[in-house]
Amino acid sequence: MDNQFAYLFGDLLFLIIWLVLFIYRKDLRKEMMYMGVFVGLAGALAEKYWYAVDW
Amino acid sequence: MTTTNHYKYTYRNRGFSPGFTTSGVTAVIFKELFSRITYRTKKTYNHWINAIPVFIGVLIMFFLFSYLRVFSFYANLIGLGVMALIILLIRRDLFREAILGGLLLLIISLPVYWIIFLLFPSWRDQTWFADSISDIYFISIPYEDLVWWFFVGANFAVVYDFINGLKLRKEPDTK
Predict the structure, then answer these.
(1) Which of B75, B81, B133, B150 could staple B65 via S-S, CB 3.0–4.6 A?
(2) In whole angstroms, how far apart are CA B24 and each of A28, A52, B119?
(3) From B70, which residue of chain A is nearest by alpha-carbon distance?
């Protein structure tokens, strides 16, 4: 398989765990969504405008 | 500390989804596995000032990496370490969640690496810069990645609880 899909595949594995927790723990959904959106956006912005991969 | 200034595109460029999934999982995995629920007391509070440790940590990372040209691994570790230290000095009750949250994210990441190694055999050679990392591997993964996961996990596990002034207690048996 093309290596460009490796990270996407890793994300999907994490997403499975994410979905299990999201479905099972209704009381923690808000925390998961807030954290996910904030860190996801921060990561995407940091990658685009700030951090370069150096290791 | 090692400094480096060579940047290039690799397959480690990530975007939105890794941060979304890993932070969501890490924020709640301790609470699920150890049957904890969150609550607020009169002593805990929800205020924007609680986000200051996050800003300090990010500023440290930015300053070290962008101005002092410190190797991003060390810049991350120092920034994340300071962030966690401030949070845990103020909220010592979150110590267990931080340590176990870091360890749990580290443990969860292992099979993800192994499955990727299995399905994408050449990914490993195209991912890390051999001249940047220590070349010390633990179960086929550079130790820098494992340490980084732990530090990230320790922060992700507690930062929401800290900012929102949430405390943890044992979940009642009846769900």
Answers:
(1) B75
(2) 10, 24, 25
(3) A54
> pTM (2 decimals)?
0.88
Residues 6+ apart with CB under 8 A from B113: A10, B140, B141, B145
Closest CA to B149 of B62, B77, B66: B77
Angle among Cα A39, A29, B61 to the nearest 5 degrees reads: 15
Token reading at B135: 């070349």
For B:52-111, CB contacts with A below 8 A are: 62, 65-66, 71-73, 108, 111
As for the ipTM of the complex, it is 0.91
A55: nearest CB among B21, B62, B73: B73
Residue A19 sits at the chain B interface (C-beta within 8 Å): no
